Amino acid sequence: MGGRLGVGRLDTYNTLAREVYNRIKEIIISGKLEPGQRLVAQQIAEEMGVSRMPVREALKRLEAQGFVYSVPHKGAVVSDLSVKDIEEIYAIRRVLEAYSVRQACKLATREHLAELERIAEEAEIGVAREGEPAFYEKNDEFHYALFRASGNETLAELLRNLWEKSSYYRTLGTALKGRLDQSMADHRAIIRALREKDPDTAEELVTRHTDAAFTALIEFLKKKEAEKGYPLREVGGKE
Asked: What is the pLDDT of residue 115?
């Protein structure tokens, strides 16, 4: 009795860096920061009440994931939209989400299904009360729960990372505009397919759902390219 537990000391620096990273990523995904907007480490540090070191670490991580890119003598800048980048992300998502939902048909528990039902209902209520903006958070929550239902934690985490990247583009492009009713209906149909353990129908629904979002988003991005008169910058700052 009275001995050390061996849990180790909390690494405050890493905890701060992770919190700063999550906070910056959240406001980028929300669309509150415009593409091309400069992120000044000193300003962020002052607003968050931290030193510049965890901010710099957070910005490095965000750059590695494509949310920001570095410009000499300017620092970190919020990434512009990129047709090429979103095409690559959706190509990977299309394959992995199809596999994931087939696994979910085999492995989803009653708890998984109940969670998906709850989220779908909350999304419908939110949209009825507040309109389209209320859908985005619940849409993310639904898909994260669907990924977890596959029973493969590594796959779920990988898909979540890809989803977060495409969420950034989707939020700026409002790819769901005009598709809310269909998206919510798709969610209900996916749940039914899981309950009936019908992997073919589930895969077809998820693939159609992903393809519809991709098509709407690509149309938006190409329209933006036409407005600018030249191809949009690729994530990472390349021309």
From this structure: 98
